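Consider this one:
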Amino acid sequence: MRSVLWLIASILAISFTTVAMAQDIEWQKIDEAFGRKAAVSGDAHRYGFPRSDLSVTLDGVAIKPAFALGGWVVFKPAHGGVMVMGDLVLLETEINPVMLKLIEGGLEVTAVHNHLLRASPATFYMHVGGHGDAVKIANVIRDALGASNTPLATTVGAAPPPAVDLDTAQLDQIIGVKGQSNGGVYQFAVPRRDPVSEGGMQLVPVGPMGVAEAINFQPTGGGKAAITGDFVLTGDEVNPVIKALRSNGIEVTALHSHMIDEQPRLFFCHFWANDDAVKLARGLRAALDKSAVKLQ
C-alpha cells in the first residue's frame, strides 16, 4: 500500500510541476513573436507556418498548403524551459540563409530533405529542435523564417476553405480513426501504440509533436484524391510498410529520420499517389496494419 501511495504522490508531483512550468512560460510573448495564436493540445503549443505564398504543382495537382506545405513548430514545457521541434518548408535558395540564423541562435538542425518528388518548384523540409528559454527560441525562429519568404503575417478575413468532396465517413472506417478537415484537405493522425521520447521527455500529444502517422487526402475530382504524408516506423517496420504501399500503387517518395536522439529510433516514410480515394485508403490501411499503431 505504501508503494502505491508513493507512486500516486510521484505522479501528482510530476503533473503539478508540468502545470507550473507551463504557467511560467510567457505564451503571449511567443504569440506576439510569431504574429499568430498557437493551437494548444495539452501542454503543447503548436504554431503553423503554411507556405501560402507558393504555387506548387505535382503531376498536375495544385498542392494546397495544408496538404504538403504546412511548416510548423511546437513548444512543450521541459527542463525548466521548453523543448521545441518543428518542420520548416523551404525553397532550395532559402535553406542556407535559414539554417545560418538557426545555428547563430543556438538551435539544432536535425534533418534537411525532400518529402515530395517532381514538385515544381521543388520544396525542402528543415527539421529543427532545441531546448531553453521559450521567448528567446521564438525570436530565433522568427528571425530564421524572415530569411525566407514564409508569410509571417496572418491573413485576416481569408475565404473559407472548400469543402472536402470525398466520402469521409468511408475513409474513417477504412483507415480506422476519425479524420478532420483542414484547409480543403482531409487529414488523419494515427497514434503509435508505444510511447516515443526525446531528451528524456515523452512526445505527447503525438499528433502536434509530429510522431503520429500522418495521412492527407486532397480531392482531385470524381471521387479521386491525391494522398501524401508519412508513416512513423521502427526499423523492423520499414520494409513491410514500403512493400504494402508499393503493392497498392502508392509511391514511396522519401525515407529518412526527422530527429537525432529519439527513443525508439524512428524512420519516416513519405508517400504519394493520385487515384480513387477509397482504393488508396485501403492501400494505406494495408500499410498501417504492418506497423504498431492504435486503431479503433
About this structure: Residues 2-24 form the longest helix (23 residues). The chain has two domains: 2-145, 168-288.
